[in-house]
Amino acid sequence: MQEMKGHGKNTSKEGEEGTTYEIQGRCLIIQLNGELDHHNAIRIREKADKLIDRNNIKHIIFDFSGAGFMDSAGIGVIMGRYKKVIFIGGKTAVANVGTSIDRIFRLSGLYKIIEKYDTVDAAINTIQKA
Amino acid sequence: MNDKNEMLLEFESKSQNESFARTVVAAFAAQLDPTIEELADLKTAVSEAVTNSIIHGYANCFGIIKMHCIISDNEITVEIIDEGVGIENIEKAMEPLYTTRPELERSGMGFSFMEAFMDELEVNSALGKGTVIKMKKRVGKPEKMNKLTQEAKQKVL
After folding, report:
1. A37–chain B nearest CA distance, Å
2. Is beta strand B4-12 parallel, antiparallel or unpaired with respect to B64-72?
3. How many residue pairs bridge chain A and chain B with CB atoms within 8 Å of each other?
4. How many CB atoms lie within 10 A of CB A27?
């Protein structure tokens, strides 16, 4: 665990929307910043897919700690990435979900296939142990 | 007392205007003293309707989207109006998970969210002419709402 943190940590910042991407082992952590709507979804999707393909990513964690808004476009982004990694046995998780975004997840039925964690660390620990 | 207020906004069908429209509707609704949750609902519904106009209504061109808001007492009415291609089958379009643009990773949840987050939703559309989404939500002033609920309860009893 300790080793992995020193080795595979790789953070990059992208675009005006300020979303950051971090790779830990085979896990991609997408820290969303600002508003996840159709406008921002396009760029997040492109960047995330590039990283997934190039870095042999298996698991994806979406960190909502900096996200103030999300609509159905966000559901599309999460579902799209879920479909990308599910075939190689990967997991998709969400963390730090606020009340209004939580309502959207519940309404869409997303929690039937995607797990929610309180923190990114909790998500990493559970996913990498499994 | 009948508090009425009205505004009309016109903007181009560019995706960066999705957040602009959300921010404007939230600012206009602020006078109703809404809860954070009510504001989030309103913003989500407007975001869905405006996004629909951009990616479906004006799929192959740019056009003008109008947002018309009316406040009457504690109710806000929002109309999102476009002069785009129109919706062929409204019933089908409103089905959860139905989308005509899967390549854009559209989840097909737009109308479901509008229905869930607003009190009323009305869709009018004509092929080649455009679409009008009319949504209503009763918002804010908790003490006023409580009073109304109590009055209603007393009537029932």
Report:
1. 8
2. antiparallel
3. 70
4. 23
Q: Select which of B17, B22, B38, B48 is catalytic.
A: B48
**Residue B136 C-alpha from the chain's centroid:** 7
Report domain extents, chain A.
13-129
CA atoms of A75 and A37, how far apart (whole Å): 10
Distance from CA of A7 to the nearest CA of B (A): 34
Do B48 and A72 count as a contact with CB atoms less than 8 A apart? yes
Has domain A13-129 been given CATH number 3.30.450.20? Answer: no
- pLDDT tens per residue, range A15-44: 546 899 999 999 999 999 999 999 999 999
Rg of chain A on CA atoms, in Å: 14
Residue with tokens 């990694």: A85
Q: ∠ CA(B72), CA(A68), CA(A106), 5° rounding?
A: 85
pLDDT in tens, B3-50: 899 999 999 999 999 999 999 999 999 999 999 999 999 999 999 999
For A106, residues 6+ apart whose C-beta sits below 8 A from its C-beta are none
- The reported pTM is 0.87
Q: Helix axis angle, A72-86 relative to A99-108, nearest 10°?
A: 60
Q: Which helix (H) or strand (E) holds A24?
A: strand A19-24
Compute the distance between CA of residue A102 and CA of residue B154 in angstroms, rounded to an integer: 35
Contacts of B106 in chain A (CB under 8 A): 72-73, 76
Distance CA B74, CA B142 (A): 10
